[in-house]
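Lab notebook: predicted structure, single chain.

Context: the supervisor wants predicted structures on file for every construct in the current expression panel, including those that have not yet been purified. This is the next one on the list. No modifications to the sequence; it matches the entry in the shared construct table.
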Amino acid sequence: MRKVICICILFFVVQFNGFTQQSGFFEDVFLERIWLSVTNSNGIYNETLIAFKPDATLGVDTSYDAEKLIGSEILSLYSKIGNDNYAIQAVPSLLFDIDVPLGINANVSGPLTLALEEEVNFSQGAQLIIEDTKTGLFYNLRNEQSFTFQFDYLLDTLRFIAHFKPAPLFSALTGTCLLNDGSIAVNNLSTTPWNVTVFDIDSNILINNIEVDSFIQWSQFPAGFYLISFRNEFYAEYDVAIEIETALQIEMQFSVSSTIVNLENATIDFTAILSGAEQIIWDFGDGTIDTAQSQVSHTYNAPGIYTVTAIAGTPGCEQFDSEVITVNDVISSVESLKKVSSYIINGNIFFTFNQNFQPKFLEMFDISGRLFYAETINSSQQHIEVNGSSINNQLILIRFTSKTGESISNYFCN
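Prediction complete. Output recorded below exactly as produced.
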């Protein structure tokens, strides 16, 4: 812990420079703070505070920064903003590299120890690298809390720079319900590359020492636990365990109230019971799409054969089911205004002709327009019988042509 006398000195500086409103600056339990200290061989000690606040800048923030009052102290440590010395300095949140020059004053030369005295809420994986511009050496204070150096009080005042580097970001993306192909993403916010290795739960290497200087994503990972290992040139070591979860399987039970209806009563109820999905899309096969509910009703306005498709889930994680709906336009014998009426007995189709209409030819076409049945009708016939066993559950087009060339066509389904 920091020495009580230094806390008092810092508090006095804040009071003296008119920053009494900053009491919350120290009390904010979520604020990231770093105390750096310097100590000489006689145990004389001094420190400076650097804090990370979202609304701070790299320049002077009068609401947060407090200047260092340097007098006749035997030893003094401070940060620099321009040409001024600061006991307390706020910088932006650590989302990019931040460099803070340090100053040291001493009344004599000799060995000094620079240390990471205390850290509060400093992110795991974030780095504090001290650069010694005199020797060209770098010290990672999150690995070794301190280092000792020989100090020349006439030449070494502005010898060190504190380099703050953000922790790498990472995420595990859930695999799809069908392929179970999860992903691992890494985003490096620092200019210093991270070397990344990914292990499975059995310590097998899946990604081996890949240098990441920005964003990268690896796919085709099954659900399970993984270890991501980060290393960089400053001997930083950061390991984190993540889990790729298994997406829910999509299941759907699809039912309809009827698969064959007549046009005069062509409203059908559709029901889908879903598991693992909330969204469903109905395609009724007649150009109508409905995304509202798992229970819907739809009315067809024309005879035909329609394939109804239900799609549950989201793109990449979907379940399909379909049903064929037949809508008949059967000629009814009770419709006296029609020239041809029909009815079905034991699979055979009976056609009866209005006395004002005498057909000469009967032709039947399948849904593709292919003629598969033709019959010449005797002029004395008022009705004919056709074996309908070959057209069971098929939509066909029936055409009657009279001697005068008058033609009557209609859809029919047995």
